[in-house]
Structures are given as C-alpha cells and as structure tokens.
UniProtKB/TrEMBL annotation:
Protein name: Branched-chain-amino-acid aminotransferase
EC number per UniProt: 2.6.1.42
Top-level taxon of origin: Bacteria
Record keyword Amino-acid biosynthesis present: yes
GO-annotated molecular function: L-isoleucine-2-oxoglutarate transaminase activity; L-leucine-2-oxoglutarate transaminase activity; L-valine-2-oxoglutarate transaminase activity
GO BP field: isoleucine biosynthetic process; L-leucine biosynthetic process; L-valine biosynthetic process
Function: Acts on leucine, isoleucine and valine.
Originating organism: Bizionia paragorgiae
The keyword Transferase is assigned to this record: yes
Reactions the enzyme catalyzes: L-leucine + 2-oxoglutarate = 4-methyl-2-oxopentanoate + L-glutamate; L-isoleucine + 2-oxoglutarate = (S)-3-methyl-2-oxopentanoate + L-glutamate; L-valine + 2-oxoglutarate = 3-methyl-2-oxobutanoate + L-glutamate
Pfam families listed in its UniProt record: Aminotran_4
PANTHER family: BRANCHED-CHAIN-AMINO-ACID AMINOTRANSFERASE (PTHR11825:SF44), SUBGROUP IIII AMINOTRANSFERASE (PTHR11825)
Amino acid sequence: MNTEKKHKLEITKAKESKIDSVDFNNLSFGRAFTDHMFSCEFKDGKWQVGKITPYEPLTLDPSARVFHYGQAVFEGMKAFKDQDNQVWLFRPEDNFNRINKSAARLAMPEFPKDIFFEGLTELLKLDDAWIKNTKGSAMYIRPFVIATEPAISASPASEYKFMIIMSPAQAYYAGEVRVLIASEYSRATDGGVGFAKAAGNYAAQFYPTSLAHKEGYQQVIWTDSNSHEYLEEAGTMNIFFRINDTLITAPTSDRILDGITRKSVIQLAKDNNIDVEVRPIKVEELVNAAKDGSLKEIFGSGTAAVINPILGFKHKDFKHELPKQEAPYSAFFKEKLNAIQYNLADDPHQWRYKI
Ligand SMILES: *Cc1c(COP(=O)(O)O)cnc(C)c1O
C-alpha cells in the first residue's frame, strides 16, 4: 500500500475498489460503505494525526468503555453531486458544532475543526466515484466518536476514536408512515441527553417503537416525559404540523434535537411567506384540529429522508387519517431543499459548502 502524507493527514489508499460489487440501483439505506474511512485517535490528552485507510473492521479491547457505558455520539450528513460533477455538503459546520455539543454532554473531548474538514474533504475526494449525480442520489456521511480506552471502571474514558464512514444512498423512501403518539414511554427528559446525538437515545427508543410496529405504526411521536401532553419529536426526525395554513413545530430544548433540516424548513417557510410558529403544541390541539378538519399535514424532517410526510396517527383510542392535499407543504419543502442541495437553485443563506 502506498501511504502519502497530506498536511497532517495520513492517507493509505485501498488496493482496489469494491465499487463494482455494489448495485447502485438497489441500495438499501446504510448497508454498503465506500472504499475508505477516516479515523483519528485521542490519547495522552490530545487528538493524534488523522488517517484515511481502506474501510475495514476495527479491533477493540472487549473492555473498551463504549461497550459498557455507552460513550458514543454520532452525526448524519449528506454530500450531493451536481450536473457538473461538483460535490457539495449542506450546512456541514452545523454538524461539526453539533457533534462537539453532543460529545461535551457525554464528557467526551471536542474534535478540532480543521481535522474534521480536512478528513471529510479528502475522504469525499478519494471516494468521489461512489457519489452519483443521478436524481435522488447522495452520499450519506456518518461521523462518530466512541470511547476506546480498555478499562471498565465507571468514569469517562481517556482514549477515544473519531471516525467518518460513508454510505451511498438513493432517494430515501420510508414507505407509508403512520405514527403512534407516546402516552407511556419517553425518549428524553429534562436535564437529560435528548438534544445530543447520543447512540443511547436510539437504543432507548427501539423497544417502544417495536411495540408501535406491532400495532401497525412505523414510528412513535414522542411527547414530553412529565405529562405526555406536548408533542416533541418523531425519534429520528423533528416534526411539523400544518393546521390550516400555519406550520407549527416545538421549540428545541434539552429534550428536542436541534435538527438542521428543521431549522432550514423554518427559514424556507419565512422566505416563502408561510406562517410558521415555533411553540409548544399540545396533543389536545392536534386531536381537536384533526376532529374539526383544520389539521392538514404532519411531516418529519431529517437528513436521511429530508421531509417525510405522515399519513395518519393514533393517540390512545383516537385514530386519524390525514386528508390528501393538492399542494402539500411537505412536497414544497422537500423540493426547495433538494434544489439547494443539488445546486439547482440559488443559495441565499450560503448553506452549500463546496468540496
Ligand atoms: C438527527 C436527528 C434529527 C434530525 O436532524 P437533522 O440535522 O435534520 O438530520 C432529529 N431528531 C433526532 C432525535 C435526531 O437524532
């Protein structure tokens, strides 16, 4: 293998590409990974030299703290290729800032910005052939940090690994989504880690979500943990409600993740003269709006699906199917966001980041 030094980054290229073994017309989300990965270790109190190497399994000591105490945080972002084969990221500084915010909450060290952007840029350049410019194609990027120190005493680790892996993705279609509004389980609590992209937040919602599956609902809408009266998140997505022509979403808090898609939708609504209210919204208000016909749409927002329309919901014994809209807001926002992401529209807020 030939190893070259680039700035502070060490790059070891894969001997051959496995790209031919991947069927780009039949990708299931997050299963195929590109030829290379980025990693950087934290030890002796500092981040070491970042490395790009062939994608391969890790070797970790079984006592690595991540396996025992769950010090693990991650991000989800995407790269898009335009018709001139130029690659773009979407608001990547926000992902960078957020992974450090998540890390700080889990007593993990913050990652340096220059190494993050250098590693990410070089990785995208090396695996450029994996990014397709066909409609809906994108590269899903997964940065994450785990505690690797081999020691099972219950305290924060002194050694970590920061990594970036990448998985080619097609337009994400989540299938028909109906949701169950939580009235028993909770995803996050005041003073907890709900705002962080902590791996454990996902682990905690798999079981209640599997109960929802059994009832025929694909996702759970989480409510506040104190009273279960306020609508908060859709688990892997933020959530928007359209009542008449007003868009409503809950304010971010300890319990609600500050989604980049969410804040982009709020900005696009303002840019396009759509009334948007960021305020607590009660389950009761939703149910009443469903009953009197003023509830027009519910949709989730997140990097993977961008916008995911929701077809119906259940809360306790109340079931509701949403009416079909001629010009749904969900489709409007998805198109606006995609147009910016694929460099097909102006970018007045400088959300695109050129690779
Ligand atoms: C990642 C995530 C979102 C969506 O955030 P984006 O930045 O829009 O991808 C929403 N809620 C939770 C709990 C998340 O983990």
